[in-house]
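okkk here we go again. third time trying to get the fe (ii) ion bound version out, last two times i messed up the smiles copy paste (missing a bracket lol). double checked this time i swear
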Amino acid sequence: MPYISIDQLKPGMVLATDVTDTNGRLLLSEGQSIAHKHVGIFKMWGVPEVQVQDAGKGGAGENHAIDPEVTRQVAEMLKPAFSDNDLTHPAVAEIFRQAVIYRSRHAASLHRQGRMEPVKRPSSPITGLDLRKKIRSRDIKLPESPSLIFKLNDTIADPFSSADDIAQVISKSPGLSALLLRIVNSAFYGFPSRIDSVTRAVTIIGSKEISALAVGITTMEIFRDIPKAVFDMQAFTHHSLACGVLARILAAGGNIRNTEQLFVSGLLHDIGRMVIFKYFPQQAGLMLTGANDDKVSLYDMEKIVMGFRHTDIAADLFEKWKFPVALSQNVVYHHRPMAAQDPAKAAIIHLSDMIAHSLGEGKSGEWRVPGLDVAAWDKLRLSSQTLSTVIPQAIHHLGFLMTVFQSGA
Ligand SMILES: [Fe+2]
Ligand SMILES: [Fe+2]
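finally!!
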């Protein structure tokens, strides 16, 4: 049954499936007739569209909104990017379907953007192992942990630290505090009353979640100044945020307990690439061009050009910056989640990354949609039906969060 955008709902339409908010709380059950007040409730909780019965009798379903010829063309253009995926797998099929609908609605964003200017490729790859050795031996220094991150990670690791201790560290940066409060007061976090101080945010939402959020925001800030000639960081932030938003919503819709840090794990999942763009721009150029020319994934080009991957850099950086192990694991294993200590959480980031690429929400330098790890998908015990609810919800929240992040800390 088709989806109807909230703006096109008419009183009297009947829900074909339950409507929930981002935390999985039921807003209106399947079979209920939609009244005017429900539309307001759906909007307030960030529900962008719902499935209704008898949509053909006056609704404006997806097929009414999109020219079938556009949809066909978009599907054809998107198929090569899915070549690492099995389109007959139910989850992949649903993600592909959602991506086609979304991209058809935003046909202008079909063109891949922001690739680097082609860089002359060397006749043989540079010796990446030497580079890795240099990073390890600190001949090439990874950035030092900014003092705010150092203090936060220290406070998180201290079992005796209080909500006040954490709030005090965060409050030292007024920009960070303001951005953090804007995020926790958004419909994405979905608290009914306003949270007006960092201390209150820590008390209500939890010290781990808030500290992780502060660490995530601060870390993203460090890489904000990467020149556009190297990579479009606004698009990179968009991809990172998309992954974070999807991760939090997917976790809420699945069987994941202790979902704290999943938003930030998504936000920071490609931190290794940010390090490469900032500190190894020449190698970044080789990889991006190579991945483009050779139809090889950027993930594999990293190995060819440098001898290691962005996830290895993330492991080194997180170790140096003393990031919480759980967060580090989610990030380091997002391309091979079943090897993580907690495979379900790494699988959430893996799936979110794959969906973000499918939708074309921002960019990471990778034009191929990473192949879905079927074992990781099975581990999550999600239904493909869940994806049809989660993806539109995530897109809705992403728009607002991008505006918040662009305003900066
Ligand atoms: Fe990645
Ligand atoms: Fe990614």
